[in-house]
Design a protein that fits this description.
Layout: H1 5-15, H2 25-45, H3 50-73, H4 75-85
């Protein structure tokens, strides 16, 4: 499940660190979280879609590694991001 251009731009605008920021860790985590939620909804109705399930698990692992990186660098920023995105941290 991919994100449309409008959805990506909205996520970038809400999670930017500075005006020209398009790929910071915060934005990557936000985009992964959105893709994970879309794919989870898809898998609720398509329980035998095993290749998508594998992709979902890979995305969850990548998001976990990125969140770990943020937590190591700045715990306050990590807590704000987790609260803003609405995931368990």
């Amino acid at each position: 499940m991919s994100l449309g251009t409008a959805e990506k731009q909205k996520l970038i605008d809400t999670h930017q660190v500075h005006p020209t920021d398009t790929g910071s860790v915060e934005i990557q985590v936000a985009m992964l979280s959105k893709r994970i939620s879309k794919l989870s909804d898809h898998l609720q109705g398509n329980i035998h879609d095993f290749s998508s399930r594998q992709g979902l698990l890979k995305m969850i692992g990548k998001r976990k590694r990125l969140l770990s990186y943020i937590k190591d660098k700045n715990v306050q920023k990590y807590q704000e991001l987790v609260k803003k995105i609405g995931i368990r941290g």
